[in-house]
Design goal:
- By secondary structure, the chain is of the alpha/beta class.
- 44% of the residues lie in helices and 18% in strands.
- It folds into two domains: 5-128, P-loop containing nucleotide triphosphate hydrolases (Rossmann fold, 3-Layer(aba) Sandwich); 134-381, no CATH class.
- The longest helix is centred in the middle third of the chain and has 22 residues, at 160-181.
- It is built from 18 helices and 13 strands.
- The chain has helices at residues 5-17, 31-41, 54-59, 63-67, 85-93, 110-119, 134-137, 142-148, 152-156, 160-181, 188-201, 208-215, 219-231, 260-266, 272-276, 281-297, 340-349, 378-381; strands spanning 20-24, 46-50, 72-77, 100-106, 124-128, 235-238, 254-257, 304-308, 314-321, 324-330, 353-358, 364-367, 370-374.
Length: 385
């Protein structure tokens, strides 16, 4: 098993402060493995319920009776399959002595999020589990992680062909089984076409009218499809940052396929050699490095933005936490240079620092408050906020 120290540290801390902790993530991203490793390290008893198993579902036919006697850590896997358990968890979380902590694992279906926000407000804390990160696998394996993505089974399989086959199988299963279970009632062929089209849109600003024309449906329909895939955690919308500047600024989000391996599967990119010759090379690199920077800094996506003006100035990633503002430019080059756009971003956004993440081997200063960082040196150069 590949250790995931940052996720484990977050999970351990969250369980000390909340009676219920939720891990959200796509199927096969490693939620169950992380929960079992947490239980193994704990000195308290643990009980697992896999709600995709008929016997575990039957054991929870009377949820209150089954759960109130348990102590230690109680894990409920695929929790979205048993929504009637949420009111019971509220009752158990409010017990004065709190003999048990509850860890619920599931996909981020809109219904589940709505029910937990209504029923468990103030009692549950969520963590979105993405795939493996650079901190998990090491900087020496950066290109393998970029090419194959962070799903553990895609990453660890011996051959590129095996990894690609796993990802294409995942995409098919996700569309045919997982999305319907999350309440997405869209024909599988339609959703596959739309998701594949979004892969070609990866790293670009959302344009509903153009995408609707290309897809042959209404703008309302493509917006609905986008929201469903975003809720299912396989598409990310990086929101725009806009201030009261005397400039026209971009106000639509940028779209990214959440996992670089899934992106390459949708684009039929089978290995690193194919990727290095593909037209989406630059945007694939941009999305991968943005995700790794965010995870290395330990910030949430709601604290992250991109910025652009209609005059052409732009910033790939803006991280805003409190009074701190960090900017990131992503370059698929080994010799980055400072540009007028970077200086405009420094001045207009009042950045504390600007980092230029690049594909070369060396990190160096490019000017006052501007530093070029080799992506392979990210773990040394960037520290969690």
């Amino acid at each position: 098993m590949i250790e995931r120290p940052l996720d484990m540290a977050w999970l351990t801390k969250a369980l000390t402060g909340f009676p219920i902790v939720g891990i959200l993530g796509a199927r096969q991203v490693g939620k169950t493995t992380l929960a079992r490793e947490l239980a193994r390290r704990s000195h308290r008893p643990s009980t697992f319920f896999d709600l995709e198993r008929a016997d575990d579902l039957a054991a929870l036919a009377d949820p209150l009776g089954a759960l109130e006697r348990l102590k230690g850590l109680v894990v409920l896997d695929e929790i979205q399959r048993l929504p009637e358990v949420f009111p019971v968890l509220r009752v158990l979380a409010d017990r004065p002595r709190k003999p048990a902590k509850f860890l619920v694992l599931g996909s981020a279906s809109p219904d589940m999020l709505r029910q937990t926000s209504e029923t468990l407000a103030g009692r549950i804390h969520y963590h979105e589990l993405s795939g493996l990160s650079l901190a998990d696998v090491g900087a020496a394996r950066l290109e393998r992680l970029w090419s194959r993505g962070g799903f553990p089974r895609s990453y660890v399989v011996r051959s590129d062909a095996g990894s690609f086959s796993w990802r294409t199988d995942f995409i098919r299963t996700f569309i045919e089984r997982d999305l319907p279970q999350l309440g997405v009632n869209v024909a599988g062929a339609t959703m596959f076409r739309f998701w594949s089209m979004l892969a070609h849109w990866h790293g670009q600003v959302w344009n509903a009218s153009e995408l609707a024309r290309s897809f042959g449906v209404s703008e309302f329909a493509v917006r609905s499809y986008l929201d469903k895939l975003t809720s299912a955690l396989v598409v990310r919308q990086l929101q725009p940052w806009h201030e009261n500047l005397a400039k026209r600024q971009v106000k639509a989000p940028k779209l990214f396929i959440t996992d670089s391996g899934l992106l390459h599967g949708l684009l039929n990119i089978r290995n690193l050699d194919d990727l290095l010759r593909h037209p989406k090379l630059g945007t694939s690199w941009e999305g991968f490095i943005i995700d790794q920077c965010i995870r290395r800094l330990g910030v949430e996506w709601r604290e992250c933005f991109f910025w652009g003006t209609h005059a052409g100035a732009e910033l790939d990633l803006l991280v805003v936490r409190g009074n701190s503002r960090l900017g990131f430019e992503i370059k698929r080059t080994s010799a980055p240079q400072a540009t007028p756009s970077m200086r405009i971003a420094m001045d207009d956004l009042k950045l504390d620092r600007l980092f230029v993440m690049h594909a070369g081997r060396h990190s160096f200063d490019m000017g006052p408050k501007i530093r070029a960082i080799a992506a392979s040196a990210m773990l040394d150069e960037l520290q969690p906020l």
